[in-house]
Every structure is written in structure tokens, then in C-alpha cells.
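New to this. Explain the following:
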Amino acid sequence: MESTAGQSLTLDDIAHRYAGSLAVDHVTLEVGAGELVALLGPSGCGKTTLLRIIAGFIAQTSGKVVIGGKRIDDLPPARRNIGIVFQNYALFPHMTVAENVGYGLAARGTDRNATKKRTTEMLDMVQLGHLADRLTKQLSGGQQQRVALARALAIEPRVLLLDEPFSALDKSLRLDMQIEIKRIQRAAGTTAIIVTHDQEEALGMADRVAVLSQGKLEQFAPPSEVYDTPATYFVNQFVGTANVLPGKLESIEGDRATVLLDDGTRLSTRVPASPSGVSAPGIGSKVVACIRPENMRLSDRPLGAIEGVVELGMPLGATIVHEIRTRSGLRLKLTEPRTPGTLPRPSGTQVLVEPASPSSVTVFAAP
């Protein structure tokens, strides 16, 4: 069988309507050959609709799906040569592991010897060769997931689609399986799209993350960029945790800006974000300054620092999270590394807090 692994995928201005409502709002994505991309967003954001459009289960209202430089919109699902790992795995309980893995090949008319050889290769890749003759209903959840993955990869798909593949697993198994699937995807060289609402899953596994909200593409970038420099206020709030401080944009000079917070504190920040198609806030505009808890630090100087009182401290293994109430009544979270024997600061402790650096403060127009 000629290898088709690692082909590029283009979603060109995809839009889809359900009963007049725009479920996917003109989304364009360029996925590189062999890349693993996560579609991340809350329920109803359009990520599963996009996956179904790629697979051919539904036809988009407008736009194009292109794989390996060829448009595939007119092809039915069976002819798109796309592998799919469903949320519930959809294994055949009356078949053995080997029969499940070889099913797609047999359905395509591949001869018995070639099917057996490819099945053996796939089971070795997912480290389940010793269970080839076992029924799938006798396997654990993690083992069933690997069988589903092996079955999807056996046909050498042009693109592999994974629909919430970890939702049926216990939390303790998820990290192991995320690492395992990424290892197998890398070994196979397959282009893969994973749909998830779990931000840790997306940030940990993907080469790039497409964040969706109400059918719109909010940001498409590497995980570190999505987390460190969110393009929109939605991405800032959906991915990770952020302290939100209201204020007014006072000045911009070069790559730095100054925000006058509502409590009178002046913060040095980076220049406000300017999402695609949206003007950046101007001088005098109401804005919010957003700071991750790990980018807050205690200060011993009042200039540019925020006054507050420790309300609660929680030791969380290697870190301590403090909740701090500012003089204006806002509650901020500050995360610090914890060394052995270190205890949280007592409630009522007066503190000064500040951003670790201007570049750690993201500014958006006030929502």
C-alpha cells in the first residue's frame, strides 16, 4: 500500500449553517503535513462540526476542504481515506483485537496476507501484539483506545481525526494516553486533528491550537503563544487563569503602554492586543489588564504595585496559591513556588503585588 501519511490539510473559508444559525463562521486553517492540531473551545463552538465536515459526514454551506493539494468536497466519507477515532471508540465487541484493526483493510479489498502484515505492524506500534486474539470487550479503556487508534492508522489515512478521545478514560489514565497517542502519531507521521474542550489536553499535545468561540476562529498558534500572548479576551479567559484588572489606557510608547487602574495604580504593560478585523483600543479607552497568577509577584516597593490583603493561602504540592483582596475589592490570585516547609502567608497579611514584567500583562478593550 502506498503511504499517504503526513499530508497537508486546508480548510478554506469554511462556513456552515444549521437552521439559519451560523455554526461555523468562515474558518480558514492551514495544517502542515504531519502536524497535530487541536480544535479547542466550549460546547457549541463549532469544533465537532468542523471535524464532521473534514470527514465528509456533513457538507459545509460554503468553503473548501483540501487534502494534499486536492479538493475532496465531492468525495463521500468512504473515499476520503480519513481515519477516525470516535469518542466511544466504536469497536466491534464480537471481533478480536486483530480483526478490529484489520477491518478497514479487509473492507477495502486488501488481500489477506497484506492485511495480516499491516495489522501486526499496527499492533506492535501500539504495543498490543500480545493481545491480538483477545476480544475487545475484555480490554481496559486505555487498551481499547489504542486498538481504535491502530484501526484508524492501519488504512494509512491522509488525515487522522480524534473526537474527544480521552473523555471515556479515568483521569489517571489520560496523561499516559495523551503521551502515547502523541508518540504513535509522531511514529506514523500522520497529520492529525484532535477535538477537545480540555485546555490542558490541547496545550500539552498539539503542535498548534485553534481556539474557537461561537463558530469563529479566535486564534491559531503554538500552545505557548496561545497561553502567553492570547489574541483576544475570550482566549485569555478560556485558556488558563488570569487576573482581570479594569482601568484606562493612559499612554503608548514603542512596545510599551501604561494603564491607569481604577484603584489609581499605574501598570506598565505591553501594547494592547489588536485581534484580526478589530481596532486596538486607543488612548483614554476603557481596558482590562490581564495577568496570569504565576506572573504576579510580591513587591517591597509601592510604586507600580497593587495594595492588598491576603485572604486565603492554599499549598498545592510544589506551589502555593494566595488569594489577595485589593483595596478596590478585586480578588487576585498569586502563585508562588513552594519549598519544603514553606507555609502560606497568614490571612490578613498586608502585601504589595505587581506583574513580573510589562510583557506579562496583556491588555484588551473592556468587554
User: Anything to note?
Assistant: Residues 9-233 form a domain with the Rossmann fold fold (CATH 3.40.50.300).
